[in-house]
Protein 1
Amino acid sequence: MTLERKLHVAVLMGGWANERPVSLMSGEGVANALEGRGHKVTRIDMDRQVAARIAEAAPDVVFNALHGVPGEDGSVQGMLDLMGVPYTHSGLATSVVAIDKQLTKQALVPHGVPMPGGRIVKSADLHLRDPLPRPYVLKPVNEGSSVGVAIVTEDGNYGNPIAHDAKGPWQDFSELLAEPFIKGREMTAAVVDFEDGPRALAVTELKPKSGFYDFDAKYTDGMTDHICPAQIPANIEKLCLEIASKAHEVLGCRGTSRTDFRWDEEQGEDGLFVLETNTQPGMTPLSLVPEQAKHAGIEYGELCEMILASALRYHDQNTKAGDG
């Protein structure tokens, strides 16, 4: 797939979220790939003057390579909507819902997407009692890349109840999402918008060499084995691809998304659960979407152009609808 014309692309990266280093790697990878395909690229490291810097650059389209708040939660999307600038990935409403794990459950579960139960808890209450039977998982409601995730077990180091001085997300967030721990295998499936509609690419199994698939395991070379395609039964692979596509559609994702799963193989299809859908998946050399795209025969630069094409199609459709 090749864009019909060469574009001036502003690649928006960096910012001040916990995922800033990942965003810088994603943005630089995208910028280099687009320059290699003949496009003009302006790199913009997100700061409080970002609107003025985008206006000054006057790009044809913005490639949003930000991760976390405010690039993934609807803030940047709303700004770009007001500016009338086309941008990649999901829009405002989708971003607001998908960044919030509880809102995501409320959107997806009624459509038959299996997700673990759970509830929002006050971090201060964790030092009094467990919110769920152990083992359970605690995670921030609106952070990505497994930032601040803790698995609380019977014999863990957090204490019972969790000690005030135990290091964990309760020290950084006033509220957390508590979910039952799902044993089993970690998997993910990416969806990319083609000209004829979105398509799930593949299923990858993630095997951390120690601990679980946390931030360090995701972005440190050599810490996690990526098995693509995952060595799983055909019915589970099919179900993952179908669910990832449904999540992309129900949430209204654009460009690309990535849905993460846990699968307890002892329970068969009933053991498959969605953890979250990421609307701004990483584009670093270790990232899963480029890896799955390559498996599907799509090189990195072509993938970047496909995401740009999706943004321009959506913008053109909305502009025509507004004119009508």
Note: The first helix runs from residue 20 to 36.
Protein 2
Amino acid sequence: MDFFDEFERLSLEMETPRGRTLLIADPHIGFELSRGLRIRTRFEERLAEFIAGKDPDLLLILGDVKEPIGMSFTVKRLLMGFFSDLREIPTVITKGNHDGRIEEVAGKFPSVEVVEHLLLDEALFLHGHTNLPEVEFSEAYLGHIHPAYTFRTGGVSRKTKVFVRAGRFLILPTINPFIEGFDIREGIRMVPFLRGARSIELFLPEGLYAGEISLR
């Protein structure tokens, strides 16, 4: 697996008032601990190397930095290593449902900030597991549901991570190449403010438009 190529495909770079911003969602660091894997993938080390190579003015993580809900010694050690590798890069975490006690680690790094949501000009950034904050925005970016879609061609099925647009909302896939993702038609129900969506548009990580899907 070419990790850097996967990270490139599953992240976004954009200009914000805070400069060149790298946007990623749902790393789930420590996922091996919760999923019964007996190997160390060192995923978080490779992700940190990718981010450091990009050297953004701002790293914005759309929640679920870690996989386990709690904060064990092992998870803390993994997070400490990850943020230590990125200590020169300003980082904002929009706290996700897996990020309980993340402040215990983030608080040790002056470059890392944990917020419920972030508003930069008219762009809103959040995880996506709670109701919308009462702010004015023109476009929002979120993660949470690890969107994927199964494409069927000639009797062959292939499940692929996708970027999803639902009106003003763009949902990013998980940056973790070891996590497959959820079918978007089911997953979107986990976003409180998108449960009434009638249709969505799919984009492949390569940037190709993959069509519109009706949800009704």
Note: Residues 73-85 form the longest helix (13 residues).
Protein 3
Amino acid sequence: MANPEPLPERLISPATLATVVVLGSLLIGGLWLRSGLIGAEQWPIRWLDVEGDLHRTSASQIRSAAYGPASRGFFGADLLKVRAEIEQLPWVARAEVSRYWPDALLIRVEEHRPVARWNEAGLFSHRGEVFEASGSHAMQGLARLSGPEARRQEVWESWQWMRGDLAGIGVDVAALGVDERGAWTLTLDSGLELKLGREMVRKRLQRFVQVHEELRMNGRRPVRIDLRYTNGLAIRWAPDTAAEGDQHG
């Protein structure tokens, strides 16, 4: 026969007990860390392993940047601070930092790869990010991109598609700029300057592509082509190859 008297209630439910255990463990761990039981002296970081395809940043520079926040030990080191210090180096695009038991940090680094200049001091990386680095003025072979800062992304994207449109005729972009009025000027690697204006820029560039072979076979060297006309263009020839003035197409 069942006992009709009610069973006594549990003083602590299983969920509450589990919560208490977890919080207690965290508290004890925090006290250990604060008291130095798992601090730098007991668990020092002895190795800073650096990985990455490095050309302009040395492994020693990366270790020096990481040393300060890493000196708090294997458990005490703040990996976000280590990463932030490394990413302050001018040629470092991004870094990943992880612990490697029992006494090392593994640091993976990706450098900026410059592909173009931006205005006076900036450089565009292969990801379209702008950064500055001392000594970069001596670097050769970089396209020169310029314009208002607010149009930086537009200049970067325009450079990309212009290079694609010109690749079929075997020429490349040496410089590309847009002024405050929104007028575009393109300079090819041959030195030829193209005035593209503010409107229908891609259509005007295609017009140049269509006449490029004819110009090449002409035997004269153009130095500037104005494509801002509705259905034509104006050519200025090098002084030693034609009479003074412009020839309209």
Note: The domain at 115-248 is CATH 3.40.50.11690 (Rossmann fold).
